[in-house]
Amino acid sequence: MRDKDLLERITVDPKVMVGKPVIRGTRIPVALILKMLGQGIPVEEILREYPRLEKVDIEAAIAYAARVVEHEEVFPLPMWSELVPA
After folding, report:
1. What is the pTM of this model?
2. Total domains, the chain
3. Lowest CB count within 10 Å: 23, 32, 56, 63, which one?
4. For residue 41, what is the domain's CATH number?
5. What is the dihedral of CA 30, 31, 32, 35, to 10 degrees?
6. Residues 23-61 pLDDT 10s
C-alpha cells in the first residue's frame, strides 16, 4: 500500500483525543501503537488487544511517524560545556 493510502487511515480531529492523530474510526492514538511497537510487543499481540485494528493500521501509524520525523525541524542546542564558563 502506498504511503498516501496509508496516511488516509490516520485522522486528526480536535474533538477526538484532543486532536492527537488516531486510527480512522477509532480513538486509538498513533502514539500508543508506536509505543507498543517500541516496547517490543508483536503486531499480532497488538491486533489481539485492539480487535478493531487491522495490520494495515499499524503500517499506517509507522508511515505517519516517519513522515512527521522526516519533516521535523531540528535546532541544535549548544553542548553544556559551551554554556558553562571554564
Report:
1. 0.79
2. 1
3. 56
4. 1.10.10.10
5. 130
6. 999 999 999 999 999 999 999 999 999 999 999 999 999
